[in-house]
Amino acid sequence: MTVPGEPEKLGLIAGNGRFPFLLLDAARAHGLQVVVAAINEETDTEMNERAAADAGVRVHWLSLGELSRLIETFRAEGVTRAVMAGQVKHKQIFSSIRPDWRLAKLLLNLRTRNTDMLLGAVAKVLGDEGIELISSTQYLEPLLAKTGVLTRRAPDEEEEKDIVYGRAVGQAIAGYDLGQTVVIAAQACVAVEAMEGTDATIARAGELFRTLEGGDETTLRRGLTVVKVAKPNQDMRFDVPVIGVATIEAMKAAGATCLAIEAERTLMFDPAAIVRAADDGGIAIVGK
Fold first, then answer.
1. Smallest Cα–Cα separation from 227: which of 255, 257, 270, 267?
2. In sequence order, what E strands does the chain have?
3. Where does the LpxI N-terminal domain lie (predicted)?
4. N or C end of the chain, less CB within 10 A?
5. Kindly report the CA angle at 250 between 246 and 251, in degrees rounded to 5?
């Protein structure tokens, strides 16, 4: 239980990647104690080191299917507000996880098992137990992408055409919660994201182009434009679009030359490093 006069506690449901650590740092900078629910199948074990070095951080490890234990842990710690940060691979739904009775009931009652339905249902269960799930950008507003050209180079005329087309396609698939990323070339859709994630989608587009014959003599422009969008009714509590330096490295490997993201609805992990990597590779980044 939170004792009067003690710092407020924030629950952190931590997936994979750097997102949970960025949010942890931001929450601690705001003076919050953080109770981390670390997922065995996803969270980096570095979380233990962070807790060992900071008395304001407590870590509890649990399996992906243990929804009841998650609730019990937060209630025992006096957590009434929580945040999700970090990816939990959608394909885990089809893995060997063993859902407890509460998660099994939730899964059986879902009309579809897409991200919005699944995480929205988890958020409702938490809310019914007195644990409010808040926006995953609550303490990370400075990392939200700004509007306009973010790199030295602006998109050229052909890339701008690809962005317009890519946003139309991306928003259509995002409306079905299929993915957030499309890869475009010469106003043709080369790859669409599904469960594999952004970087794998970019790599697949690059591999497809490497298989084309004809060298430089082709009707299809070889430069790829990556377009990442939020969902039409994006719930900022989960599955917010994110990019990092790894995204730029994946683009370089695939031969992509332009990245368009949604301003104010896309998190940039280490914006300065992202822009520096893009500039080094001649990649244009624009927030729309």
1. 257
2. 9-14, 33-39, 57-62, 81-85, 132-133, 148-149, 181-185, 188-192, 224-228, 242-243, 256-261, 267-268, 284-287
3. 9-142
4. N
5. 120
Structure pTM?
Answer: 0.86
Burial class (CB in 10 A: 0-12, 13-18, 19+), 137: buried
Using alpha carbons, select from 273, 241, 117, 102 the residue that is nearest to residue 170: 241
- Strands of 57-62's sheet in order across: 57-62, 33-39, 9-14, 81-85, 132-133
Q: What six digits make up the tokens of 84?
A: 């999700």
- Reading the chain (288 residues) residue by residue, the pLDDT tens digits are 444 556 699 999 999 999 999 999 999 999 999 999 999 989 999 999 999 999 999 999 999 889 999 999 999 999 999 999 998 876 665 565 788 888 888 888 887 767 777 888 889 999 999 999 999 999 999 999 999 999 999 999 999 999 999 999 999 998 887 889 999 999 999 999 988 889 999 999 999 988 875 555 555 566 899 999 998 888 888 888 999 999 999 999 999 999 999 999 999 999 999 999 999 999 999 999
User: What is the residue type of 35?
Assistant: V
Rounded to whole angstroms, how far apart are CA atoms 63 and 74? 15
Phi-psi region of 108 (alpha: psi -120 to 50; beta: other; left: phi over 0): alpha
How many angstroms separate the CA atoms of 234 and 175, rounded? 9
End-to-end Cα spacing for the chain: 44
Give the three-class secondary structure for 249.
Answer: helix
Phi-psi region of 214 (alpha: psi -120 to 50; beta: other; left: phi over 0): left
- Tell me how far apart the alpha carbons of residues 123 and 133 are, in angstroms, rounded to a whole number: 6
- List the structure tokens of 264: 């104010």
